[in-house]
Amino acid sequence: MITVHHLNNSRSQRVLWLLEELGIEYQIKFYERDSSTMLAPASLIEVHPLGKSPVITDGDLVVAESGAIMEYLLERYGQGRLIPAAGTPERLKYTYWLHFAEGSAMSPLLLKLIFDRIESGPMPFFVRPIARGIAQKVKTAFIRPQIKRHLDYMEAEIAKTGWFAGSQFSAADIQMSFPVEASAARGGLDTSRPQLMAWLKRIHALPAYQRALDKGGKYELLN
Ligand SMILES: N[C@@H](CCC(=O)N[C@@H](CS)C(=O)NCC(=O)O)C(=O)O
């Protein structure tokens, strides 16, 4: 039996969604973030040394890292579903977006989260103007332009076929959901990019997405 070690408000929501799409039996073990640090509890380290989510266990196997989990589940249980045929241009796009999600899209979003926290977090009053100044400079000079470039690119790509890997919904769309949702929640994605907003609306309406939400519990990236 597959167990998804599921952290609230996290990337493991994608794994639940994939499992729902594939119709595989699984169970969820729930973990709660620390409310002040937002870090995962130490009990996740007992499952995998990095103590991050998602991680799944399947019998004796432990698989971490969202992209690797996607590939494992599709190869073992997918029977060719949700993945374009090998050797096609769509397959290359699929591979590209599967990696882009964590390899490129998430980096400036994570930096923004960290620098937002530095800006607004508690600190001695005499350090505050300096810390805020540095945070604002990094955000203006690097983080916002990078996020904008990514969003412009994704908007143009999704406009071509409506899905990330060609004209069919695929697991690349599942993998891309987290950075696009994070962009809408805190990265400046709004109705000025109608193609990405319409894509978000389409994925959120999928029955398997909705089932995964019901099972995973509160997912604040949607608020
Ligand atoms: N690239 C990894 C990132 C894993 C990751 O950072 N997960 C976050 C949740 S979205 C986490 O576990 N954060 C809590 C912590 O680091 O303690 C993946 O896609 O699996």
The helix/strand series, from N terminus to C terminus, equals: EHEEEHHHHHH
Give the end-to-end Cα distance, rounded to a whole number of Å. Answer: 32 Å
Biggest sheet descriptor: 4 strands, mixed
Uncertain residue ranges: none
Give the helix proportion (percent range). Answer: 55-70%
What is the arithmetic mean of pLDDT? 96
What's the number of helices?
7
Pairing-aware structural class of the strands and helices?
alpha+beta
Bound molecules: glutathione
Radius of gyration: 18 Å
Shape: globular
CATH hierarchy class name of the largest domain: Mainly Alpha
List the helices and strands and how they pair.
Elements: E1 2-7, H1 12-22, E2 26-31, E3 55-58, E4 61-64, H2 66-77, H3 89-120, H4 128-161, H5 171-186, H6 194-204, H7 207-216
Helix pairs in contact: 1-2, 1-5, 1-7, 3-4, 3-5, 4-6, 5-6
Structure explained in plain terms:
- The chain is an alpha+beta fold and 223 residues long.
- The chain is 57% helix and 9% strand.
- The chain is built from seven helices and four strands.
- Helix 1 (12-22) links the parallel strand 1 (2-7) and strand 2.
- The radius of gyration is 18 Å and the shape is globular.
- The mean pLDDT is 96.
- The structure holds glutathione (GSH).
- Glutathione (GSH) is lined by residues 7, 10-11, 39-40, 51-54, 65-66, 102.
Quick summary of this structure?
By secondary structure, the chain is an alpha+beta fold. The protein has two domains: 2-83 and 211-222, Glutaredoxin, CATH 3.40.30.10; 89-206, Glutathione S-transferase Yfyf (Class Pi), Chain A, domain 2. Helices cover 57% and strands 9% of the residues.
